[in-house]
Amino acid sequence: MLNSHPASPPSNDTEQITVRYYPVSNSCGTSASRELGVGEAFVVPSFELAEALIARGADSARVAISQIDSADANYPGYVQVASNKQLVPLAPFRFDRSILIVLPTYNERQNLATLIEAIGRYLVADILIVDDNSPDGTGQLANQLSREQKHVHVLHRPRKEGLGPAYLAGFQWALARSYQSIIEMDCDFSHAPWDLPRLVHRSSTADLVIGSRYVRGGGTQNWNARRRLVSKCGNTYVSLFLGSSIRDWTGGFRCYRHELLAKIDLETVKAKGYVFQVEMAWRACQLGAEICELPIRFSDRIEGQSKLGWQSIVEAVTEVPRMYFKKTTCR
Questions:
Q1: What is the C-alpha to C-alpha distance for residues 173 and 171, in angstroms, rounded to an integer?
Q2: How far apart are CA 166 and CA 273, in angstroms?
Q3: Label partner for 297 (CA 20 to 30 A): which of 170, 195, 219, 235?
Q4: Which residues pair with 316 in a beta bridge?
């Protein structure tokens, strides 16, 4: 099935800024270190050049892609809303494959509607909200959004069991409906909606695409020293056991091809917390999957509280060695 819901246009209630573009026509073009002012952006003719620019330090929110690489139509352009730094396309990217974005939610009522609207500005895709019986009414809001927007679907689960089981339920739902690309992302705006087309485009040649904080051009924003230390130490710990072929083992912004998820025995994936991301990447390695990491800038959540707790850390400490002793490492 191909996604066909209508586009969500940029908001009209806020002043729009005319964008001045600096063209980059090859990988040795305009320096990504150029200081861009309000209403300025780089423009490139392809996703490949966009990735080269971003790897050299350009902010993906300020890179416009003027033409879809595999289609026959020129991309119609972008606008910038005065209150935001990121560019907003006049029409969302549309790919020749069916796409599902899985959004696990627990007490995300403050973010849900805004995120769904933002996703629609950048990518034509279906959305599955997997709600674990949130006490703040997230599930009820999800039902309302589903009634209003045909591309939004809801999967209700009776209780909170952790990130892993929620994603697994979403993946199984997607496989049963033959979606070709399945994306996972957080519901708290930690993952930028404008990076979604980049992940989908790269998945045409990779089985698993990871939005990575720890490859050239990636990074974190609004993190304190403690959180940076925990994340860095976590990824280093995993790499010691499972190898260094993946720089961001714990990253949760990903695009899976249907074929890869179908090969993974999802029924045997046991991780519940954030080590779920490690286990899924490790299983992809074991299957010989083509894995690509694209640089992203991971931002701290806008609303709500972080769900990373000591239970997730303890699970990671114990489960990663279990993976190491079970099969070979990925290098």
A1: 5
A2: 10
A3: 170
A4: none
What's the rounded Cα separation, in Å, for the pair 208 and 41? 29
CA distances from 191 to 61, 188, 254, 311 (A): 12, 8, 10, 23
| Sequence-separated (6 or more) residues with CB below 8 Å from residue 7 | 91, 92, 120, 121, 124
Q: What is the DSSP string of 293-304?
A: EEE-EEE--SSS
CA distances from 313 to 221, 229, 309 (A): 22, 13, 7
Cα 155 to Cα 101: distance, rounded to the nearest angstrom: 13
Band the pLDDT of 289: cuts 50, 70, 90: very high
Q: How far is it, in rounded angstroms, from Cα 226 to Cα 245?
A: 25
Q: Which residue ranges form the domains of the chain, and what is each CATH number?
A: 16-89 (no CATH), 99-326 (3.90.550.10)
Q: Check: CB of residue 183 under 8 Å from CB of residue 254.
A: yes
Do 295 and 199 meet the contact criterion of CB atoms below 8 Å apart? Answer: no
Non-local (6+) Cβ contacts of 313 within 8 A are 230, 234
Helix, strand, coil tally for the chain in percent (to 5):
35, 20, 45
Q: How far is CA 197 from CA 64, 120, 183, in A?
A: 12, 11, 11
pLDDT in tens, 82-118: 667 789 998 899 999 999 999 999 999 999 999 999 9
> What pTM does this model have?
0.89
For residue 71, give both structure tokens: 């289609």
Is the four-CA dihedral 45, 50, 53, 58 of positive or negative sign? positive
Q: Give Cα separations from 30 to 50, 68, 236, 255 (angstroms).
A: 12, 21, 34, 30
Residues facing 127 on adjacent strands = 101, 152
Distance CA 21, CA 139 (A): 42
- What sign for the dihedral angle of Cα 111, 117, 122, 128? positive
> Which of these, 139, 119, 168, 88, lies nearest to 3 by C-alpha position?
119
Angle between helices 275-286 and 163-176 (to 10 degrees): 50
